[in-house]
## 1
Amino acid sequence: MISRIDLRGEALPEGSALRDLLPRAEFDVEAALETVRPICEDVRHHGAAAVIDYGEKFDQVRVPSLRVPAEAIDRALDELDPAVRAALEESIRRARLVHREQRRTTHTTQVVPGGTVTEKWIPVERVGLYVPGGRAVYPSSVVMNVVPAQEAGVEGLAVASPPQKEFGGLPHPTILAACALLGVDEVYAAGGAQAIAMFAYGTADGEDTDDEPGCAPVNLVTGPGNIYVAAAKRLLKGRIGIDAEAGPTEIAILADSTADPVHVAADLISQAEHDPMAASVLVTDSDELAAATEAELKTQVAASKHVDDRIVPALAGRQSAIVLVRDLADGLKVVDAYGAEHLEIQTADAAAVADRVRNAGAIFVGPWAPVSLGDYCAGSNHVLPTGGCACHSSGLSVQSFLRGVHIVDYTRDALADVAHHVVTLAEAEDLPAHGAAIKARFGWKVPDTK
């Protein structure tokens, strides 16, 4: 059901040589670019009509209007299961606690008397938040995208999620209910590459069946999606900012003989049920744990849902494996090379081991902090870097929606004090006009600071 990779021989290789030995899904965004390019161009030139046409083609439902009516959003909340509502409200409450603490404040540094540099954090003006549909329903992604944007102070928030034939062309009602709980009333029934293009170019031409204005262009698009969403983000990056090109979801578990194989197997399965391309990786120095986990996988998979279409293909795929290492030191090298989206540490003294990890989207410490907790109610964000990008990228946070702007304020005396250095450096770079911009302020003579 799941393969083994034995790295207990010679010393582990370094860098890319080690990464090449580890399991990883094939996710060729570059190849998907040629598929999404004509879609994005069509939306650019034909606006809402093109988005609606592609919704009919890919989601098998033609919507009368992209904008979800306010009464549909309100109705979804009214009809929401009270237990689901309570769970979403608690998820929102905890996420706000964590993300509110991330907000940076303006800071001024006095470089010299009369010379200051202030770093001011300004929220992005308008953001498009993408919430995937398809195999599962993700109201939790609404929470994880909207809360940090709101805590950053973003004024314009628009959510897009694929139209669902089962619900008359509206996004899933639980997604709409989550939007209502968060006070988001601009929601569009649009999915895939066409939704990203809608955010990038806008649909100011209006929509086919009414006179309401379309979706205004956004400055930034966040939220995970399939390979075509990732390809559209890559194609349109520059016109819009993006959070990341999300690939297949993944879990890595670093565990020793103290770990409970029941927990380990359950956590591997929890990630595998997302998608056939989901990655589930166990890194361990214990033969006994590896064998016990394999046995538990057989037992627990048999009792699971989504077995044949998701879990078994994911666990059996090249992206999943049990990786055997000589000791925890090598295990740490492996998980750092892998750079997992979600990394669980299930070892003795798990907190100390977790403190030694360099590369991970989020780290879950010990047996009582499974990834599922982070998916919903830990307070952390579950929009995280995939595909090894955790070695250079962070998960979604309040900072994702802020721009740091430097404000430079110098008096005449403060500029005079450093003018000779500026002119010297300008001339060293053969940019004499840069130096002239300084000299012009002092009658074309550099002030004598001696």
## 2
Amino acid sequence: MRNSIAYFNGPVQNGDFTFAERPGKAAGMRLAEALNALLGLAPVPHLWNTVTLAGDVRHRRAADRATVGRQQREKEAIVAKYAPGPAPAGGLRTDIDHQVACLAREMARGLLADGTLTVRDLPVRLCTRCGHMAGAGTAGDCRSCGHGSSRVARRSVLVFDRAAHGPILGRDDVHTTGARVPSHLFTIAHHVPRLLVLSRTRDHGVDLAPLGLEGMVLDPRAGLHVAVLAATREFRAVRPVMAVTENAAANVAAYGAPFRRHGPMRLRYLLHGKIPYETAASDRLYEVHRAQAVKDLFTDWYLPLCAARERVGISAVRIPALLKLLRRAHLARPATPPGDLLTDLRHRVAAGDMRWVTDVRALACALSDREDTSGPMGPTRGAP
């Protein structure tokens, strides 16, 4: 029996941070976990983006690079993000996992066969020392090795001609009901270059040598989408929804356009704003509103849900009002969620209608369902 819809986080870049220091990085993971739990789904894996130029440079400069491999370094860095808390119940996946690499090459072969992608010999700028291929808008020293000179040369690259694809991003690609259409994102997507190069020179990534592109990997912006589809297939869903900020969607949508569909699967975006965790972490805030009992619930569960309603970001001045609303709903939550209200809530969650998060009655129902230990899933586990 296949699940129809499942929410996933947009893969998070595995940079130099921990969740304790920068909890906003976990917003998409917490949001996906909360929505899936409301739908009665088992936890999905947390997804990570490890194919980065910064990661290449960091590994090369590491004193222990001779004994610690790149994949091991990425894994250790990801695990450290969660310390000292527990690992996520759904596990961890990255954009270089075997299942992702296999699916990426499978999809690329199909897209090459139908003409959506092509391999072309194009003039590109290469570092004269390390051979790193710079992007069209990149200037200055090589971002891979720091060398100061480059040359123009012809190289075979994987190309997506968006002019033959139709709109890169449209309202059907955004999973939402009752919210403003993000027309500014459609405009950004419309103005990307006509020819998008989807192969990159990286030390780490989905190897494109089997496609005849030696020394190149799939562009990580495309790889993010494949990582979600691979997790979707593992989870036996067909309608994956990737939770991303508007800024992230603007950066990755065009490059991921050919990789949003595969077989019955079709990926869409759930947009969410940023959360002012500096304000939300204030102990004084919870003392004033007598809300110490719901502090973790507010920061780890409710604010990510609110971020999907307030997609341009939650204003810090809104934090006290949202805390009072949650406390009110928490006090009013029924012992058992009313069946008709819970059914309606799940329909809204599945449709991407996030207006319910400021409806006290619906929010109380969601809280009651979250705390219900009678079902097969038991109580909701905490997010990172």
## 3
Amino acid sequence: MRDLVFVAFLGLLFAAGFRKPFVFVLTYVYIDIVSPQRLTYLLLNSIPISLIACGLAVLAWAVVDDKRDTRMAPRQFLMLALLLYCLWTTKTADFPVEAQFKWEWVWKALAFAIFLPLTLRTKLRIESLLLFMVLSAASIIIVGGIKTLGSGGGYGELNLMVSNNAGLYEGSTISTVAIAIIPLILWFSKFGTVFAPDWRVRAFCYALIFSCMLIPVGTSTRTGLLCIVLLGVLMLRDVKRRLTYLAMAGAAAVMAVPFLPSAFTQRMETIGTYQSDASASTRLAVWMWTLDYVKQNPFGGGFVAYLQNRIRYEKVAVVGEGANQTVERSLEVDAGRAYHSAYFEMLGEQGYPGLMLWLAINLGGLFRMEVLRRRYAKAGPEDAWVVPLAAALQNGHVVYLFGANFVAIAFQPFVFMLIGAQIGLDTYLARKRSEQTWSPIQRRKKGAVAA
């Protein structure tokens, strides 16, 4: 039954796509974020629906869509360079067979992010893309929020519809994304046009934000808690009454503490005592191994190069209570530990060139959104939505880059779609400015001919 429901849903989207080609783009966004094939039992597991949707989107754009004044932004060329570089490192990888599995989804994420801005020619398309991204992630987040309220969750225990611990269904990844989309949700609650921001839309937005805040609690991920703190600081820039905001945020945090499950509070206590936690201790050891590895392999070892690591780390535990407390130290040995950091993931797999390209793509996005915030700071009512959207995209991107310190999400498709939306917004506004610059000249020429 579940298979048939998804087939009917996708069939309706594809049918609509023959009339509105951009629907194919939105279909791919939904499929790539939610991965409905993971939720089904048989039929969709055997069909490459993601590749089909992507092919239809590109074909519809090439054949039907308007391509006047189509322009490629510098970051699209950087992503193309990163794509080609990753292809080369995959061919020369230390583990070529295992690397091929990661390459099969990485190239699609990069290729679609390069293609996506070409389709974002109108404000409606930009908003529709972001709306689909938020709602697709919300389909996972709402389930997680409800289960957190019901059971309290726990580290590695919260089931987000599937038991597959990959993509957005992984605890630290969904926690980072859930907090990163909060600025976009707030933007929709004020400036959305697909769904006019009446009381019903605002109520849903605020409920979704609450659910986003519950995800780090339900997954008991330290990354999510730190992302919440960072987002609270970032939002200080845009609030009008900062002291009131700080007072309300502090009061909300204090009132929330008694309701937090014990699994969450115990997990958060390990932030200050990382040596007693194997997860944190192994991360530091893997990071040191990666730094030593790239000294001998400056171009990286290709995807999943971490499989060859052999690490030793010291684990410290406090045993007993009060005066009877003792510190026990033990030397642990592990192998094939993942990077647990996007920065070290890029460094170990793609070396210094790959890391520099990846940083340029991401930091370039923060810079361009800052340019838009300053350029449209005094815009008229018709462009009042621009600065808040640029700020939302910038803040969400900063949260991602911060969360990426602790989870290997360098090629997370959701974030590359966010980057594509940034480029689309930038090029759309550039076209608008270009049209406004030339229209007076055209009017004068018509007037001269009439005279």
